[in-house]
């Protein structure tokens, strides 16, 4: 039988999910709705199951790999600065679109639609939550920022120990390879998972309610499209001086997987592969991509909170001024790590709302369309996580431009995570 390309499997999954969700809602088919809900939940749970150990070992190993990179501190600093610069551009675009379109006025929604979120964020929680109280809780309760902190400490300590840390790094490299293999099995289930997720959204809210968010949904998609197909290509052409179309040809497998999986961390192995295929040195890519997968969120932490804040302010009749807009920019640029690379951006949005003094109950207004929005948000995140390493590599003159020019797309279905042998890690640590 002919093989169905992965993108076609995804498309079929989305169409099937919409159809089944509509049948479950219009025909009041309880068992079908339960199946869709459980299918989506299991897919997300499987992704979350791999997140904690994957983030820890990926960050730790990536830091130790910087030992083999010339001017590692300079590369890390420039990577962080470009993360912040692109986030600044993205949040500015989000604010501009929100102010021009007025997404929160005339929606026909009632206050009964609002609800306090189960998870919320504040600056105090964000700042004090970086350092864990113990080494177990961050993994059991999935506090990704704390996991990143512990992994960074372990990676720096391993660099200082040198040869004594070689056995530990060899084990870490093997565990990371194992996790990436298991994660790839989960990713192969994305067509089924996407059917469950989109079907549940249609089943729970229906087209009539979703239609009330038409302006807001269009704003988020427009903002992400401007960043994805406007800002990024412009930076690639002017800063890196490379062909933007070639970037999308090489990075598209990761972007499409991010769209469906709604998880930057879940897409991380594929994002790293396409980044390396675009000519970024492997040692640098193995640092920049894992780091970006947990902190670089132009879609979830910049565009979306900006438009959502305007939406909620208009809904409650709260006038936002220049001070509030500047606060949105600050929160988006500094607090993006709070999104943690998982599905959804509730924590980042509540952090923004609490800073502005807007009602947190407004988050409940947006739950109806969140799964649909999360797709394009995550795709934008993933693209940015590949763009920045290309920009930095080009500026530092370590980008393999011949490899970049020859990078072509490949079927995600044929992708297999690759890992360096443990011996190579031990040598790198020596």
UniProtKB/TrEMBL annotation:
Transmembrane feature ranges: 42-63, 75-100, 142-161, 220-240, 325-342, 348-369
InterPro entries in alphabetical order: Na-dicarboxylate_symporter, Na:dicarbo_symporter_sf
Membrane topology annotation: Multi-pass membrane protein
Keyword Transmembrane assigned: yes
Keyword Cell membrane in record: yes
Gene3D superfamilies from the UniProt entry: Sodium:dicarboxylate symporter
Top-rank lineage group of the source organism: Bacteria
One Pfam match: SDF
One GO molecular-function entry: symporter activity
GO cellular component: plasma membrane
Subcellular location: Cell membrane
Major place of residence: membrane
One of the GO biological process terms: dicarboxylic acid transport
Keywords tagged on the record: Cell membrane, Membrane, Transmembrane, Transmembrane helix, Transport
The name this protein goes by in its record: Sodium:proton antiporter
Organism: Streptomyces nanshensis
């Amino acid at each position: 039988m002919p093989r169905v390309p992965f993108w076609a499997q995804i498309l079929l999954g989305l169409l099937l999910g919409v159809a089944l969700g509509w049948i479950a809602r219009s025909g009041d088919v309880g068992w079908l709705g339960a199946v869709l809900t459980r299918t989506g939940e299991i897919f997300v749970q499987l992704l979350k199951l791999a997140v904690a150990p994957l983030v820890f070992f990926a960050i730790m190993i990536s830091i130790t790999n910087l030992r083999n990179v010339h001017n590692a501190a300079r590369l890390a600093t420039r990577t962080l600065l470009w993360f912040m610069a692109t986030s600044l551009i993205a949040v500015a675009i989000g604010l501009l679109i929100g102010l021009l379109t007025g997404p929160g006025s005339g929606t026909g929604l009632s206050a009964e639609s609002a609800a306090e979120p189960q998870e919320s964020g504040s600056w105090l929680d964000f700042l004090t939550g970086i350092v864990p109280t113990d080494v177990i809780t961050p993994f059991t309760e999935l506090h990704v920022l704390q996991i990143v902190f512990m992994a960074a400490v372990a990676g720096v300590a391993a660099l200082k120990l040198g040869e004594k840390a070689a056995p530990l790094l060899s084990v870490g490299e093997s565990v990371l390879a194992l996790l990436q293999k298991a994660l790839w099995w989960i990713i192969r289930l994305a067509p089924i998972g996407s059917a469950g997720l989109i079907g549940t959204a249609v089943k729970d809210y229906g087209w009539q309610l979703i239609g009330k968010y038409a302006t807001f949904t269009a704003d988020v998609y427009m903002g992400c499209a401007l960043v994805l197909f406007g800002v990024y290509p412009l930076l690639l052409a002017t800063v890196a001086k490379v062909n933007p179309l070639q970037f999308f040809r090489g990075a598209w497998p990761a972007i499409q997987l991010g769209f469906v999986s709604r998880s930057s961390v879940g897409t991380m192995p594929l994002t790293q592969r396409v980044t390396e295929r675009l000519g970024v040195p492997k040692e640098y890519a193995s640092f920049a991509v894992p780091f970006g997968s947990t902190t670089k969120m132009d879609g979830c932490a910049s565009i979306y909170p900006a438009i959502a804040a305007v939406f909620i302010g208009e809904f409650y009749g709260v006038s936002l001024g220049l001070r509030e807009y500047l606060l949105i920019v600050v929160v988006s640029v500094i607090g993006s790590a709070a999104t943690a690379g998982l599905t959804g951006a509730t924590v980042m949005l509540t952090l923004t709302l609490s800073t502005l003094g807007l009602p947190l109950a407004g988050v409940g207004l947006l739950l109806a369309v969140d799964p649909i929005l999360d797709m394009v948000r995550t795709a934008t995140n993933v693209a940015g996580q590949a763009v920045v390493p290309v920009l930095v590599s080009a500026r530092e003159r370590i980008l393999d431009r011949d490899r970049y020019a020859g990078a072509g797309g490949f079927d995600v279905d044929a992708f297999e995570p690759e890992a360096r042998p443990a011996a190579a890690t031990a040598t790198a640590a020596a």
